Amino acid sequence: MLLWVYTDKEQNKLGFTGHIVSENRVNQNSLKLGKGVDIRMTTSNPILAKLLAILFGLVFATLSIPMIKQGYEELKNGQDSLNWPTTTGVIISSETKSSSGEDSTISYHANIQYQYTIGGKSYLSDQVSFGEFGSSDPEHARSIVRRYEKGQKIKVYFHPNYPDKSVLDPGVSWGSCMILVGGVMFFMGSIITLSDVFIAPKLQQRRTQALQQVAANLAMTFQEEDVNLSKQDFCRFPLCRHNYPHLRNILSKYGEDRETILFDYNFTTGSGDNSHTYAQTVAVFHTPSKNLQEFTLRPENVFDKIGELFGSQDIDFESHPDFSKFYCLQGQPESAIREIWNFDTLQFFGQNHGWYLEASGEWLVIYKLNQTIKPEDMRNFLEQTTEISQLFTE
After folding, report:
1. Of 146, 147, 130, 135, which Cα lies nearest the Cα of 109?
2. Has this prediction a pTM greater than 0.85?
3. pLDDT one-digit tens code per residue, 252-309
4. Which of 15, 108, 166, 343 is 20 to 30 A from 3, comparing alpha carbons?
5. Distance between terminal CA atoms of the chain?
6. By three-state DSSP, how is residue 354 classified?
């Protein structure tokens, strides 16, 4: 089990989930300790949330140290055992055993005990290999039992300095690697959690300050937060139909016939084990004098191609195969959509890939999925999206 800790500054909540990712603005509020065990918790106290995040980060850092140490020793012993001296031993017991976990799953493992003598002293061991593991498939354990039957004489590899340490199958196995990998993942989780508490807020503050200066240079107004923006009509578009959407660092300006808005946008798709958080910069154009036909444009993927076979809409243009190859265009009625997608528009998108567009009525939304624009590139992003908007509004 691996734990990720999420902090949600906007809602002053701390959440936990069984993943290894840390995002500043996700509220999962789920701690998964195993199958069938799901503990949910939140706190409305931001100070307590921060203390809990620090606590979990330190706990996981502490847990990771012995795991990394044990994993390293398992790997080293596995590698060194190839050169250990050998002696003859005998199997004194060989059987398959099972155990039930908290989630009622059954794990099978081989219980092999053998005896050997070094320097006149007798030793007893059950170490078949380094990194040996149980399995829900009993055949794995049975195969080991068949290899080492009771009464069978076997070759025993033993540590030259510690003869009580021995193994029957020398070398490194993938099981011995898993302990080290698990320890490293726990350590990474602790680093991510602690950095989310101490580093991420500073980076966010630095970005906010940089964008504030960009807004001044572009003659745009700046707001770090604007609760009214999420109430605008464009927030009913597909862009905002996700879990825990959040808009911040808002740059805006009014022109003769349109309002231009740029902002950072975070959202989450899925939940629990299947959740994924996106962060991107979005451009929104509000043109009260226009009434855009409703449509969506996104880069075409394999699922779109499969969907077409079952009747899913994808408006293609034989005159522009590059556009049709790289994009999925949807909207109703199709005849009206085809009218607004003229030669210049199709030519532009045929040569410029990766854009997402959502339009309806007075609003046009433009972005690239999971792409956050650097402050120094915001002027270029504004120019690009303005050029795109003019394809539909002029």
Report:
1. 135
2. no
3. 999 888 999 999 999 888 776 577 888 999 999 999 988 999 999 999 999 988 888 8
4. 108
5. 55
6. coil
